[in-house]
Amino acid sequence: MKVLLLLVSFLLLTPCIAGQSWTALQNDQSIKFTASYDDIAFNGVFKEFTSTISIHPQDLQNSYLHSTIEVSSIDTNSHDRDQALAEPDWFYFSRFPQATFNSTDISMIDEDVYRITGILQIRADYFPFEMADHSR
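The chain above was modelled as a monomer; its predicted structure follows.
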């Protein structure tokens, strides 16, 4: 089995209002990523997902981000590549329809910029993952 090594940069595209919890609305947001395979970089988007985020600047220990991504909603702007990603060597949509991200730590790295660290689960594999969230 090939292991899909995606270098993924997720961008939640609407602002997080610090101190409040919110759930992403799919018509307003997307999850974008950049990946490479055989040294060829490409961009893509997941169109279907749910995310709940709560960032409390004065209480970061109780802040969180939880996301569930419907992997079959992937769009890499290549029909052939998207079909290949559905197969057992890659995401295996029929057996593993979702990927998840759960934060383990949120810290402020600059005013209104938070580092979100957590675990990304793709198929039955778990990957440490880190991203920045710009709350404005």
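The domain at 21-134 is CATH 2.40.128.110 (Lipocalin).
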